[in-house]
Amino acid sequence: MLTGLSAFPLTPVTPSGVDEKGFIRLLARLTAAKVDSIGALGSTGSYIYLTRQQRERIAALAVEHAEGIPVMICIGAVATAEVLLLAEDAQRAGASALLLPPVSYQRLNDDEVFGLFETVARSASVPICLYDNPGTTHFTFTPELYGRIAALPGVQSIKIPGVAAQPDRALAQINALRAALPQGVSLGVSGDAFAALGLNAGCDLWYSVCGGLFPQTAKALTTAAAQGDRDRVTELSARLEPLWELYRKHGGSIRVMAAAAGILGLTDPDCLPRPLLPLSTADRAEVAAVIAALELA
Amino acid sequence: MLTGLSAFPLTPVTPSGVDEKGFIRLLARLTAAKVDSIGALGSTGSYIYLTRQQRERIAALAVEHAEGIPVMICIGAVATAEVLLLAEDAQRAGASALLLPPVSYQRLNDDEVFGLFETVARSASVPICLYDNPGTTHFTFTPELYGRIAALPGVQSIKIPGVAAQPDRALAQINALRAALPQGVSLGVSGDAFAALGLNAGCDLWYSVCGGLFPQTAKALTTAAAQGDRDRVTELSARLEPLWELYRKHGGSIRVMAAAAGILGLTDPDCLPRPLLPLSTADRAEVAAVIAALELA
Fold this sequence. Notes:
The structure is a homodimer. Chain A is built from 14 helices and 10 strands. By secondary structure, chain A is of the alpha/beta class. In chain A, the strands form 2 sheets. Chain A has an 8-stranded parallel beta barrel, surrounded by 4 helices. The radius of gyration of chain A is 18 Å and the shape is globular. Chains A, B: This is Dihydrodipicolinate synthase family protein. Chains A, B: Keywords: Lyase.
């Protein structure tokens, strides 16, 4: 399942709780575009801001509305005990894979992060994807630790937080990672602005925030990558530069995607869990202008 | 209440849950030493690793065993909705004050952090202490944001994460903060190694991890500070340098304090919530040697 486009939708939240209808509308776009997999409750899916009960419900809705597309559920939490409960919930809901970030509060060391993955791998019965996102988890993996964790039974993919900005360096980086990992462990690029570089450097798939809202747009990239058309991959990403620039301006993708979902009429204009705040009116207008200019729909 | 020594005990955790007897043993040391306040469920108290139910129980135990000493309870969580529930729980348990850190996952902006404090201040009926600890929350306050938040009704103290390492710069820093804050808002230094510098620069109190396990030792510093004996404050902290060095070596105080509590026979040798791991045997021996050399007890 871990190839092509893995689309990470928002989980829209209103003051009264999760907006289930909005979430289902987002899922419908992903199934219509026939994305290769759905990553529900990722960082952009606000997993960390939701209760265990809300996460269980969203996992069940994702599987129910996925029309057979495999669903990966993020089970991140600071406490290992909570991660284990979330893993049970996600598997009971029908998740095809589990996405596990080393969410930290106290700074974690390598043995602690390895211990987390070892504990979860021991009990999980579906594949695990290592989620590396230092911008939110504040933990930095080494290739050596990737290797230790990827050798655990069930660990089948690594979601890397981007690649070097030069194509030749990105290629060297991915080749070095492959050498450190057991065969069969897939490498997925994330950080949407790095998708083209990562795919052209040989990543197996794109764990995509853009694809969670604009799946056709994102799929054009992974399709071009599957066809080996590297120039087209580069060109398609370059065209999206105004969107990547909005991510940079607003400290990540989540506030931009939440604004975009509201602009498209898929969710309330304010669909972020507090303490996160929606973009200002002026910033929302800028998002709307980029959507129009890039003909995102 | 927010003067002198505010002692922050560990919350010992074993595989079967919170070690309530161990926690009560730690509290007994604080009441015997007549600390000025108790900060339960701080960072070293592992608040973020515990469930809402566990936190409610610890808050109740802290108040019950505090022998009338005011208890401040940390209500930090990533989601504002959860923080509000924790605030209710803590107040119902009898907390005299609430400690509120801007725990972050997505990077927060100033308006989002202000919104969090505004929301909590609106509903709380006991004083709130702003908890600034960028090492764990990954949010950096500006003096301007301190000022906005400290102007909210109920915000009565700021727990700062340390001061400049030069006495004259520390003094200038504290004076500048005072100028940015409403009168009557206390400033408490934390980061144990900075306690002497902070107290000598005019901080009103020490939010102390050391005091959570070694209250007599910590109280000697705050007592000397209250007597205006700056040289003695500096001397007492300098004597504890081997302890501060252990904190630095182990990425913070929690693993060192957990080891020390085990060495003193107050808790199990392994009393940290996973994914945190206890120190190695060799590192524990080093902690034991420092405890013996400094005659900590």
